[in-house]
Amino acid sequence: MRLPIFPILATAASLSTVLGGPLAYCACQTACNAGVVTCYAAAGLTFGTVIAAPAAPAAAIACNSVLGVCMAACAASFLAPIP
C-alpha cells in the first residue's frame, strides 16, 4: 500500500518541534540492518534464523551487539528534538 506523500509532509510541517530527521533516521536504521545481514553472512549465518539461546554462535551475539550500538547511535543522532 502506497501512502500519498502530501498529507505526511503537511503534518510534518505543522509540528512545532521538528525531529532531527525522521527520514535520515530511517536511512540510518536501514544501513544498520544491512550491516548486520552482512555480518551474519560473513559468519556463515542467515540473519533472522538464529534462535537466541545460550547455544547461539558467538558471531551472532557479536553481530547483534553491533546492531544495537548502531541503532542507538541512529536514535541519538536523528531523533533528538530540535526546538
UniProtKB/TrEMBL annotation:
Keywords: Signal. The keyword Signal applies. Residues 1-20 form the signal peptide. It comes from the Eukaryota. This is Cysteine-rich protein.
